[in-house]
Structures are given as structure tokens and as C-alpha cells.
Amino acid sequence: MMRAALAQARRSLGRTWPNPAVGCVIVKDGSIVARGRTQDGGRPHAEVDALGKAGEAARGATVYVTLEPCSHFGKSPPCADALVRAGVARVVSAMEDPNPAVNGQGHARLRDAGIAVEVGEGAGEAEEINAGFLLRVRAGRPLFHLKLASSLDGRIATASGESKWITGEGARADGHRLRAIHDAILVGAGTVAADDPELTCRLPGLAAYSPVRIVLDSKAGLAEGSKLATTAGLVPVWLLCTNAAPAARREALHKAGVEVIEVAAASDGRVDVAAAAQALGQRGLTRVLVEGGGQVAAAFLKAGLVDRITSYRAGVVLGADGRSAVGELGFDRLDFAPRFRLVSARLVQGDTVESWTREA
């Protein structure tokens, strides 16, 4: 039953920020009478969604939920109170919510009402699903997931800059699936200038789930005629710049519908990615897909901000004169290198797709 609730939670990934993606199932007499998930935009919450479907069948039932029911008034009443009113007999939560506004208080409210509460079933998977939300609560920043699409020798383009297409159609479609389960996509100004990308999700049926598009652009050089700027009214575009960005450029982009956000500069004058991470966390993002280019990838790796990597590798070799997927990291000892643990590997139409997670 908890696996069914976790499946519901995964369906909400990329759609609920700043709220967590939560799943809920209501069980009576050994059968599921209702399923719910946190709905797009974060409301209604999973418990309320499921209770609405269950109706009177919720009385005396067991509720499986992937995160502790909330206990505070936000933009909606507490889910713990809704469960009490519905007359459920038992609540099985995968984990406590570390949000200071909850942090055990939801479970306490249920117990005070005479509802049996169990915590811990499915905790590992629940924590992985909401790793971004948990990071934002605990560290003030979203989870950063680096996507790499490269040759066998780690190149993303030839020496001349040709890159379309190193990987095949299947790998590219899988990359769009990744976009759909993240709150935002982040690229550097160089990638935008070179490729003029749209950074939308172009899988059938998922166009409406295109995430926020973020550009690191220290001097706000994004062209008003770019695909990003001209579509900012349809899918949000955030530009992170430094105080070196001229006021005229900021104003022009603002008029085009781009949200311009100033953050601190690093020693090289570029946007400081640690400051950018905090700014994005403050705006509620929980999961950000970092798509490029090599300098941006290197900056996040050097700052210790890359939590996950998905690598798409094609069976082609481009050589040392090709453009590297990751820029210079500046260390001279192997024990300084960022390390990741392989989670899965599979073939997608001849390309190798590997998922990695940062070692603790």
C-alpha cells in the first residue's frame, strides 16, 4: 500500500513546488478506496485529494501517506485536521516532515485525536522522491541534477562547435522526460548565445509541464529576440545576473517578461553559483536540472552543489580538440575530485544512460 502511495508521489514531481510531492492512498477492508497526490501548483495536498475521493469510506480506514500530514495553516487548512474530521482509524507515514512548521506536530495532532500513527515504512524511497524539498528545508537550496549528453570521451561538441546530434532520438526524448520532473532548467549565457534554445518539454502530452527556465548571465546579455525572451510570457524565464549588469539591459529584459534576479558575483565576475542556489531556494524551487554548458557544470561541481548526474553517452569519439562536457575544476590531487555512486545504467536506442548520486 505504501508503494502505491509512493507511485502517486512520483507522479507529482516537478509540478508542486514550493510544496513537496506527496502521495496518499486510503485503504479499507484490505482494498484501496481512494488514491491522491499533491496536485499541480501544490494544492490540494495529497491527503485532501484522497479524502475527497473516498468520502464516507474514509471513516475507520487506514491512510498511507509518503510525508507527515501538515499541521499548520498556510494557503489551505491542516491535513492532519482533515484526517481527524474524516474519522480515519490509522495513519502510516513514510517519514516526518522536517519543515519547522510541521516537524512531528502533524503526527502528534493525529495521536491526540486517538488515531494510531506509524512512521517509517518506505522512508528511503520517500526521502529520495523529496530530496529536493528536504534540501531546501535543511540547506536553503534546491537539489541540482546535472545532465550530460556526450561522446564516449566526454565531449559535447566538435572543435567547431557542432553538437547536433551526438546522442540519438531516444536519449533526447529521455532528456525531455527529465525536464518534466524538475521545477526548473538552468543553463549558462554561453549555451543560450550558441544554441538559442527553447528549454521546454517537447514530449507529447507534457508541453504544459515545461519548467521554469533559468539563465546564468552576469551582464544580462540575453537578446530580447531570443527564443527564451520571446516566449517568457508562456513559460517563465528567470535571469540571474550580478551588479555588473547595466540597468538598461535589466529594464529591456523586464519589459520582455523576463524576471531579472541579482545575486553576488564570484571572483571571476560570473554569477556565484552558491549565491544563485540560495536565491533559487528562497523562491521555492526544489529540483533544478542543470543542462550546460561546460563552465556551468564545472562551477556547480566545484561548489559541491551537484547532487545527481544523468549521463547520456553516444558511441562516438571526438578527441581532445572537442569541447569538454565539464570545464576546468582546478584541482591537482585525485582525492579532491567530486565522487558519485552509480545508481543505474541502461541502453536507450544504442546510447548508454547512467544515473549517479553524490557520495556522502
Q: Nutshell version of this structure?
A:
The protein is α/β, with parallel strands linked by helices. Helices cover 28% and strands 24% of the residues.
Can you put this structure into words, describing what you see?
This protein is α/β, with parallel strands linked by helices and about 350 residues long. About 30% of the residues lie in helices and about 25% in strands. The chain has helices at about 1-10, 45-55, 80-85, 105-110, 125-130, 130-140, 170-180, 190-195, 225-230, 245-255, 275-280, 295-300; strands at about 25-30, 30-35, 60-65, 90-95, 115-120, 145-150, 155, 185-190, 210-215, 235-240, 260, 285-290, 310-315, 325, 340-350, 350-360. The strands form three sheets. A nine-stranded mixed sheet has the order 11-10-9-8-12-6-13-16-15, with helices on both faces. Strands 2-1-3-4-5 form a five-stranded mixed sheet. A two-stranded antiparallel ribbon has the order 7-14. Helix 3 (about 80-85) runs parallel beside helix 4. The longest helix has 12 residues, at about 170-180. It starts with a helix and ends with a strand. The relative contact order is 0.12.
Task: Map the helices and strands.
Elements: H1 2-11, E1 23-28, E2 31-37, H2 46-54, E3 62-65, H3 79-86, E4 90-93, H4 105-112, E5 116-119, H5 123-129, H6 131-139, E6 143-150, E7 155-157, H7 169-180, E8 184-188, H8 189-195, E9 212-216, H9 227-230, E10 237-241, H10 247-255, E11 259-262, H11 273-282, E12 287-292, H12 294-302, E13 308-313, E14 323-324, E15 340-348, E16 351-358
Parallel strand pairs: 3-4, 4-5, 6-12, 6-13, 8-9, 8-12, 9-10, 10-11
Antiparallel strand pairs: 1-2, 1-3, 7-14, 13-16, 15-16
